[in-house]
Specification:
The chain is α/β, with parallel strands linked by helices. It has one domain: Spore Coat Polysaccharide Biosynthesis Protein SpsA, Chain A (Alpha-Beta Complex). Helix content is 33%, strand content 25%. It contains nine helices and 16 strands. The strands form five sheets. The protein has an eight-stranded mixed β-sheet with strand order 1-12-7-10-5-2-3-4, with helices on both faces. Helix 1 packs across helix 5 (134-144), helix 2 runs parallel beside helix 3 and helix 8 runs parallel beside helix 9 (250-269).
Length: 310
């Protein structure tokens, strides 16, 4: 590969106007799907869907569909998203012959079977402080640079705890796990500001060829596998401003970190991960240690293009 194959491009969302992107989309005869994986996000998913629909479907024809994939929610996520104007599917109901796995990556993989866009934009459902320019920002490189196949967003990620706001302290798994792994094992990706960002976009023709971890390792896996197959020159990143979302507990983040570690290990060693690992965590109960064991899924789905019936 030439040097251009390894040159990571960085942009700002302001680099493209909405009208220019709509024109580029029409000229290239492209269709665009927004996919929102969601689990128990009834409090925020309606705002995400309705604001994007108003700005990018009703006002301009940048998006062709907004699809929410409900991943076994126990609240009103499905109804709220549907009322806001999204097409909503329960992950377990998509290709039930293939079974169902818990996790964000599973919802994203299943979305390939029910969406029609040539370009797919992914957004998390738990966004609090954000704006609709996230979507056109992510589409900019895909609509204007044929070489680009995957686009990552990056932003200021404050850590919010009660009334305390720390401007740059969000993204704990990124800083404590993903970035050290990238530095040691995949230095060609070290220029990515937020490799685990939930806001990203890809060409369908790429995503359907990737192995997809069913959990939180999906973002890192997509970056590593795209870099290996197409070079880092096929990856771009876009500065999107500021993003705030609901933070998980430290023990829940340990499960996420386990999935990210498994993705890096399997790719660095070319060794498939086990389907599940038992994560043993400890808490103190009246001064005595108590072990709590939780199974963490490390399952990966095969490239959708290889699935029967594709």
């Amino acid at each position: 590969m030439s040097d251009a194959d390894f040159a990571l491009r960085t942009h700002r969302w302001q680099d493209w106007s909405l009208s220019d992107l709509v024109s580029a989309k029409e000229a290239a005869h492209r269709t665009v799907s927004l996919v929102v994986p969601a689990r128990n996000e009834a409090a925020t998913v309606g705002d995400v869907v309705s604001r994007v629909r108003t700005a990018l479907v009703d006002s301009v024809a940048l998006l062709d569909e907004i699809v929410v994939i409900d991943s076994d929610s126990e609240d009103d996520t499905f109804a709220v998203a549907e009322d806001a104007g999204a097409i909503v599917y329960r992950s377990r109901d998509i290709r039930p012959d293939l079974g169902s796995q818990p996790g964000k990556g599973e919802a994203m993989w299943k979305s390939l079977f029910v969406t029609r866009g040539d370009l797919i934009v992914f957004m998390d459902a738990d966004l609090i402080d954000w704006d609709t320019h996230f979507v056109p920002g992510l589409l900019g490189p895909l609509l204007t640079a044929p070489r680009i196949a995957l686009v990552k967003g990056f932003y200021e990620r404050p850590f919010v705890e009660g009334d305390r706001v720390c401007a740059y302290e969000g993204g704990r798994v990124t800083e404590l796990v993903a970035r050290p792994l990238i530095a040691m094992l995949f230095p060609e990706l070290a220029g990515l500001v937020q490799p685990l960002a939930g806001e990203w976009a890809a060409r369908r023709s790429l995503f359907e060829t990737l192995r997809v971890p069913t959990g939180y390792g999906v973002e890192l896996a997509a970056l590593i596998d795209t870099s290996r197959s197409l070079g880092t020159g096929a990856i771009a990143q876009v500065q999107l401003g500021r993003r705030t979302h609901r933070h998980q507990s430290l023990r829940d983040l340990a499960a996420m970190a386990t999935q990210v570690l498994a993705v890096a290990w399997s790719r660095a060693t070319d060794t498939p991960s086990a389907d599940t690992v038992l994560l043993r965590q400890h808490v103190l109960d009246d001064g005595a240690p108590v072990e709590r064991a939780r199974p963490v899924s490390l399952t990966e789905r095969p490239p959708a293009r290889l699935v029967r019936g594709w």
